[in-house]
Design goal:
heterodimer, A: 359 residues, alpha+beta, Butyryl-Coa Dehydrogenase, subunit A, domain 1, Butyryl-CoA Dehydrogenase, subunit A, domain 2, 3 domains, 3-stranded antiparallel sheet, globular, B: Butyryl-CoA Dehydrogenase, subunit A, domain 2, Butyryl-CoA Dehydrogenase, subunit A, domain 3
């Protein structure tokens, strides 16, 4: 997801791709999704050892000296295989902690010894829950998760606000949050939990400022966009392969123009959305990166849903069943369109930016 | 297209590029008034006046040495990186310069000559082409060979050692004013498909050639039908080899798509900016669904700008245009048409729909009508999709 990858970057992406192809198969992810936590913790540990979470760090702490776009490439690789677990949240945690100047907390995140979940949508950071902030602690009457992977992680990172200031609060979880129940979400690969902590308290790790929140929304958008591009690459490849093999009327269905043109439309949209998403990692003024990231999120959400719908149609009757995995790509595309942040918010932001001629 | 780059700035040399941009801006500021003549934008010229403006602009660029920045120096170019062409196209569009006049010659004929022509052909034709002293048209489509271009039936026959052309061409852009035609004709047996096609140079001003303008849906007569009756060809008329015309044509069309899209994408981005301006001025009159449509074309325009630059960078690195160019052609035409449609809807909502939105905007009705051609010419969008499916995705042919 960058136009200028260094040799080291390319090696990291190649190693990641090879590892994911071998270890992060879809059957494995589906099996793990049935477990209480909903994901394979050991797999994320292996990824940490490969430097997967370190790529989110731009500072010297990370030490990889990688280009910003490397994180985008890693997200795209994870998207290709529909990687399960709170890896996305872990990457965002690195970005948030680093942005807040708490690099001292990064080590345990990067090595994967502490797994984080971000239990509130990214836009919640614009309007954090109101709590009592005292002596570096935040006390919630109750803290609840509305997003995935509330269980099976070690800590939550939550925005909070009192009358005076906003804060990032780190809530360390007991082995299990007080009350957890799983509910039906968009996708089995992104299990949603209702998790409620009664009388919870957490450590204030930093103050929130506007720039930090804007960066969080920007990162959420462009990272999700990369995941969508990666997932769409797989979807298109699978549908194309199926169209070459499956025969009706005595010839491959991929020789019919009606199907050819639908798949070509996916290709056309994928090529241009990838270009747009790549641009979000280029050096540019902050406002420009905000604009491109919002655009990338909106464009990639539409692309990935459209591509997965097309793939279901190309796979015909079998595409509508659990016999083939194509439906997971559709469900994950629908999930990403909404969680951890919806297309709608970015679309509204863009609508309001129509009049901003600096953009 | 570009081989000899010695002594020119490298792709990474941002400061040289910035300096060039400054130079271009200053030059445009000084030059454009004489290009426009009495008709400073936004006054819209008639077609004949527009052509005269375009020709003046081509000549001014040539005089400045910027007519073909990326061509080899031996033929009047500067052997500059493709980014320089991008800067020039951007700044010219921003400053309201007209489009290039000799665009068929610059976009298709010159690349064909540089890549496949003999040295004598290059020496004879490239100079006058660049100076807009000799104008070129492109004789590809025929009444019965549009999308199925390889089925063309205009024949070339050797008579006393000279090739003569008989047949009919259509949608021949600039043929009414052209000096030469870059023409595809059949030299093989009837039904020999793409293997029996040869590229010829045909002088337009001769008895064997009759041009009849066609009135287009936008009232322009920029393209015509051309009747050829044993028309004479130029001395040394074959570009490339006899029977090699198809490969040559497809190769140069790929370059043309990339380079033409450069200016077109910039113009589209400017049109969207004008539409944003209009919508924000009349915000209360514009319903929210149209604002969403505006956001959509804005997103597409940003994606397009990025994709075009990526394709040009690939060409700059010496790669042949790939399947991504076919995809970009479709993406561009769909965006162009969506902008035209949206603009007319926005205009229709305003108190005085017959009046324009603002002073400095394009003529949206013209813009809309012109956009309908974009999914037809240079290979219809349907043909592009079939090419993408078969060559890009490897789906089986019927």
């Amino acid at each position: 997801m960058t136009t200028s990858m260094s040799g080291t970057d390319i090696e990291i992406v190649d190693a990641l791709r090879a590892f994911l192809a071998k270890k992060a198969t879809l059957p494995h992810a589906l099996e793990q999704a049935e477990s209480p936590a909903g994901f394979d913790r050991r797999l994320l540990q292996h990824l940490a050892e490969l430097g997967f979470f370190e790529v989110a760090s731009t500072s010297e702490v990370g030490g990889l000296g990688c280009s910003p776009g490397l994180m985008g490439s890693c997200c795209a690789e994870a998207g290709r295989v529909l990687l399960g677990g709170p890896w996305f949240e872990q990457l965002l945690t690195v970005r948030l902690l680093e942005g807040a100047g708490r690099s001292d907390l990064l080590d345990e995140v990067i090595v994967g010894s502490v797994l984080y979940s971000l239990p509130l949508a990214s836009t919640s950071w614009l309007r954090p829950p109101v709590v009592a902030l005292e002596d570096g602690r935040a006390r919630f009457a109750a803290a609840s998760s509305e997003l995935g992977f509330a269980a099976g992680v070690d800590a939550w990172l939550v925005p909070a606000h009192d009358a005076a200031t906003g804060a990032i609060v780190l809530v360390r979880l007991a082995p299990d949050p007080a009350r957890v129940s799983r509910r039906r979400g968009f996708s089995v690969l992104w299990p949603a939990f209702d998790a409620l902590l009664d009388d919870a308290s957490g450590e204030v790790v930093a103050e929130i400022d506007d720039r930090l929140v804007a960066t969080h929304l920007l990162d959420t958008a462009r990272m999700l966009a990369c995941v969508s591009v990666g997932a769409t690459e797989t979807v298109l490849a699978r549908a194309t392969e199926y169209a070459k093999q499956r025969e009706q009327f005595g010839r491959p269905i991929g020789s019919f123009q009606s199907l050819q043109h639908r798949l070509a439309d996916v290709f056309i949209d994928l090529e241009h959305t990838r270009s747009l998403v790549t641009a979000t990692w280029d050096p540019a003024p902050f406002e420009r990166r905000q604009l491109l990231s919002a655009m990338a999120k909106v464009a990639s959400d539409r692309l990935s849903v459209m591509a997965a719908e097309t793939a279901v149609q190309v796979h015909g009757g079998a595409g509508f069943t659990w016999e083939l995995p194509v439906h997971h790509f559709l469900k994950e595309a629908l999930r990403r369109r909404t969680l951890p942040e919806s297309t709608g918010w970015y679309r509204l932001w863009l609508r309001n930016s129509v009049m901003n001629y600096n953009l | 297209m570009v081989d000899d780059r010695s002594g020119t700035p490298s792709l990474d040399d941002d400061s040289a590029l910035d300096a060039f941009r400054e130079e271009v801006r200053r030059w445009l500021e000084c030059t454009l008034p004489s290009v426009w003549g009495a008709l400073t934008p936004p006054v819209r010229p008639s077609e004949a006046v527009d052509m005269a403006m375009r020709r003046r602009f081509d000549r001014a660029l040539h005089a400045a040495g910027w007519g073909a920045l990326s061509w080899p120096t031996a033929y009047g170019g500067r052997a500059a990186p493709i980014e320089w062409e991008l800067v020039l196209a951007e700044e010219a569009a921003l400053a309201g310069a007209p489009e290039r006049f000799n665009r068929v010659g610059l976009g298709i004929v010159a690349p064909a000559l540089i890549q496949y022509g003999s040295e004598a052909q290059k020496q004879r034709y490239l100079g006058p082409l660049l100076a807009a002293e000799e104008v070129w048209c492109q004789g590809f489509s025929e009444p019965d060979a549009g999308s199925d271009l390889a089925g063309l039936s205009t024949r070339a026959e050797l008579v006393d050692g000279r090739w003569r052309i008989t047949g009919q061409k259509v949608w021949t852009t600039l043929s009414a004013v052209a000096d030469f035609c870059f023409l595809l004709a059949r030299t093989g047996e009837a039904g020999s498909g793409h293997r029996g096609i040869t590229a010829f140079i045909v002088p337009m001003r001769q008895d064997g050639v009759v041009v009849r303008p066609i009135r287009q849906i936008n009232d322009s007569t920029e393209f015509s039908e051309v009747f050829l009756d044993a028309a004479e060809t130029a001395p040394e008329p074959v570009i490339g080899t006899v029977g090699g015309g198809w490969r040559l044509a497809m190769s140069v069309l790929g370059y043309e798509r990339s380079t033409n899209l450069l200016g077109r994408q910039v113009r589209l981005a400017l049109a969207i900016r004008a539409l944003r301006h209009a919508v924000s001025t009349y915000r209360d009159s514009v319903p929210e669904p149209l604002l969403d449509d505006l956001v959509d074309v804005w997103i597409r325009s940003e994606a397009l700008g990025r994709a075009v630059r990526e394709h040009l960078a690939e060409i700059g690195r010496g790669q042949a245009p790939g399947i991504g160019d076919n995809a970009t052609k479709v993406y561009w035409s769909e965006t162009y048409q969506a902008v035209g449609d949206l603009a007319l809807q926005v205009r229709g909502l305003l108190p005085d729909p017959a009046h324009g939105l603002l002073d400095d905007e394009p003529d949206w009705y013209d813009f809309y009508l012109g956009s309908r051609a974009s999914s037809i010419y240079a290979g219809t969008d349907q043909i592009q999709r079939t090419i993408i499916a078969e060559r890009g995705l490897g789906l089986p042919r019927r």
